[in-house]
Amino acid sequence: MTQLIPSTRQLILVTGATRSGKSQWAETLAQKLNKPVIYVATALENPDDPEWQSRIAQHQKRRPPDWETHCIPYDLSAILDSIKSPHCLLIDSLGTWVANSLEQDNDTWKEITDQLLENLQKTPLDIIMVAEETGWGVVPAYPLGRTFRDRLGSLIRQIGAIANPVYLVTGGHALNLSLIGELLP
Q1: Annotated binding site
Q2: Has residue 120 been placed in a domain?
Q3: Domain of 64?
Q4: Does the pLDDT value for residue 142 go beyond 70?
């Protein structure tokens, strides 16, 4: 049985649309914790895609120089086991992490996410996770797009059930859903 960590640490979920400011809000929250920050980047660099490299560079420029950065495109569970308190992990982003593992079959994906959820509940670290909202528009016309949308939506809901607070960033505002919403059963 997983032993739940004491309530003195925080698991924070920041979700929202593209370019809504969710990463900046997560960075602000990390700075407010007054702990050493380890920024976990899930993006894979692609020198053949200058626009993608520009997005990565924008994120890098905003980070304070004393933040440690780890590029973890696949095994998020491993870093949860390897870092000790008093650090804060800022994981940006779950959508990119899900996209990196789309080739996994459903059983393997379930094992990966079950391990992540278990480690999130037992780690003593403060963790801030950034996730993109999907599924608020048209159903993707291709199977891989639907798999991505379904996997990310399900993961956000599962993490949202154990995180507190959960923020929705939209229109340049951060809404604390833990204060104004109710957790679904």
Answers
A1: 16-23, 41-43, 92
A2: yes
A3: 11-180
A4: yes
